[in-house]
Amino acid sequence: MVLVVAALAWWLRRSAFGSILVAARDNETRTRAFGYSPYLIRLVAFVISGAMAGAMGYLTAAQHGFVAPQMLAWQNSATVLVMVLIGGKDTTSGPALGAILLLLAEEVLQRTTEHWLIGVGLIIVALVITAPNGIVPYLAQALRSKRVQHA
Amino acid sequence: MPEPALRASNLSKSFGGLVAVDRVNLDLFQAEVHAVIGPNGAGKTTLLAMLAGDLAPSSGTIELAGHDVTKQSVEARTRSGIGRTFQRSAVIPRFAALDMVRLAALNNAGLALLSSLSANKPATARARAALGRVGLAERESVAADVLSHGEKRRLEIAAVLALEPKILLLDEPLAGLGADESRDVVALIEGLKRDCAIMLIEHDIDVVFALADRITVLDNGRMIACGAPAEVRASEAVQQAYLGLDQP
Fold this sequence. Notes:
By secondary structure, chain A is mostly helical. Helices cover about 80% and strands about 0% of the residues of chain A. Chain A has helices spanning about 1-15, 15-25, 30-35, 40-65, 75-85, 95-110, 115-130, 135-150. In chain A, about 20% of the residues are buried. Chain B is globular and about 55 Å long.
């Protein structure tokens, strides 16, 4: 399922539709003057991401056999947002990496200490300070400067 | 007289107490360059923004080939054939020049939006042709925000050409261009006249009088003269309000 979603995201980003999404974000006036409606384009993107989240929700419910009311709490939305932010919001791979890192950190810290939430918080703060645009853009930048040094 | 491609009737726009455009009538005809001149703050850009759909007029109507488009959005007007450039270059950062023009060329392609920009051969051909016309063919893979100021201005024009507009609204296309670049753009505008109706806002008076078939003069939002260049040059009101400023 992750692969399907990743493939879909990658394909959307490469498509002309993805280009329009980026253009509408970076220069909305210009994009409108090209005849595209940012509202419509964003609505489609919203529907696609909503559908993805819905599919995941179904799989979660099917796996656990029940849905607790806490799962609808706003903290869950915030967690997803944090995943995207620490991974890199302008990238396709960033959110996936962010999700893996955050869940991994939670898992490891939960086993070592009772106060694991403090640990997670510190990690997020540290990441926001060192890589404010997210990990993937940070790594890409580091790679580029390394290559420049070699050249 | 043929039907105008674009007609503005009694167009007004006020911002609070300030009347930026005051009951202006304007007709754009096919194969004509219609220049709009006037001192700074005369309402030229406001007028263009209303024609393009960026600003809703306070009163008055705008007709495109006889159809009322006053309430239409920018994107709907673009699809009906209005193309515009911006006073300040409005390129899309990090897009290669070719990709930005392709985005314009792809306009309204429906399902083609699902494949990548580069996969669309007709759009690519149109985009390359447009870049060639403005002399940017060799810069197609350069990121739009890295181009020089003059190149950005020409990229803007290329992107608008790729839309294949029937009406072209040019907001100071020569602003900040060097002499050589200006000459190229003037020649380009002259060539474009065959295919569309052009409204030109420009401060370079020599260019305006050389290029325009008709000139409308705005002052404080009001139209103080409209006619052939020779008539406008002779008009006393214009001399007082504007042209006279050049020869104190």
